[in-house]
Amino acid sequence: MTEQHRTLTTRQGHPVTDNQSLRSVGERGPATLENYPFIEKITHFDRERIPERVVHARGTGAHGYFEAYGKIGKEPASKYTRAKVLTQAGVKTPVFVRFSTVIGGKESPETARDPRGFAIKFKTVDGNWDLVGNNLKIFFIRDAIKFPDMIHAFKPDPVSNRQEPWRFYDFVSLHPEALHMVTWVKSPWGIPADYRHMEGSSVNTYKLVDGRGQALLCKFSFEPKLGIKNLTSKQAAEIQARDVGHATHDLYDAIERRDYPEWEMCVQLMADGDHPELDFDPLDDTKRWPEDKFPLLPVGRLVLDKNPANVFAETEQSAFGTGVLVDGIDFSDDKMLQGRTLSYSDTQRYRVGPNYLQLPVNAPAQAPATNQRDGQMAYFVDDGGENPHVNYEPSNIGGLRESPRSGPDYHQYVEGHLGRYQTTRTSDDYKQAGERYRTFEAWERDDLIDNLATDLKQCPEQIQLRMVWHFWHCDPDYGARVAQGAGIDLEKAKALPPLEGKPAPGQNRQGPTYSDGEPESDTPEAGVAARPRKSGGSGRDMRHR
Prior knowledge:
EC 1.11.1.6; single chain
């Protein structure tokens, strides 16, 4: 490897002066549509593979239903949201769920050390709601403009066609916010035993909107009724030697014998605001909301009870998008969520076609009525109007009309200087990773250290030293054990200066601030007890931590 550096440009040849941040209204404000470098980058990334998914190619799926309790915690769900799918108790909403690994191709093993996709399509009475998440409750990066870079670094080398550890750690070493996710993924939590014993999470922050147009920040979680089970590297290797699709087989067989897997859907709620009392930004998806402050509040149950009749027609052509929301659930200014909202649906139109929503697995429960026409593979017109000649709105002679509102819109006040911003609250890049290390059981820490040491032995010295420096700042024992396991000079690593342009651990980067809003109140249901989570079964049981 050489250290030759050329100036990064767009595909139009324009120099890129900031490849770290979306353009937004203030540090925490919404992203803007004229993010041309990001749009060019992400839309090209969406088209890098055909017809296989760029990420989440290896997957399996099942049909089932979601049944709301009609409550959020102990309160009526309508107190927090007007979304019927969450407020109507006892109604069974049809769902299709697709589980997946992220980096590997369609035939890659399901024992891979990798986050797992947990994507749900709810076919509600108000249209589709897609909740596209992962098993772990955080992610590697917090700004969507970095997503193509991250996946390129984690995918096989474009020259050798091998997944090289040095590429992964080269990227991670320059993005301290990834340390928290690395600590999870390189521990046994990075290899779920199967899909039935695995959590699900929205990862991103959304908003719940009530009948008055008031909103709360919200994260969604799915807790398996069977408990949580993960694998060590040794256990995974033993399974992979005899079955590369063990998790698919496990899910299919369980449903066929009517041992239907079930999850409890929970939410965490927080007042909508920047919460200066926290040492992390609630919109930063590399951070977890502490459950002692923001408890998991039960909302309903998710049950899978039917296997697909055809894997290609249903599982492979199922298409999800984070922008597919229903009334009562809204976007936050989470920059990963805003970037994914463009990318996911754009990917589906490219991969499956512009009429992918006409496929039965993707079609909403209620027949759609739009003025959109034609496109590849269109096999019916979803007009639903009184006059088929009118494919526009409004009209005096028939055609479709706007729906009445179910409640006032949530009006978020936005003010700020347009620019590219990185969060100034970065101390938790190290704090939460260290906390996670200390809460692991001894055998989990042993597996984590062994996995990291094995990887880092294959990396150049400058990457080894920087990673030990990061781990040592997360927790001195963490860094010392990785250094010892990989044969890295700990004192030499500790002597490194902070990363250029980033604050030293425990310090917030100083930068321009333009808002002086009043802090919001804390979680709206502080003190409401969350239902305890189960873990159990054979093998390694994961305690809720």
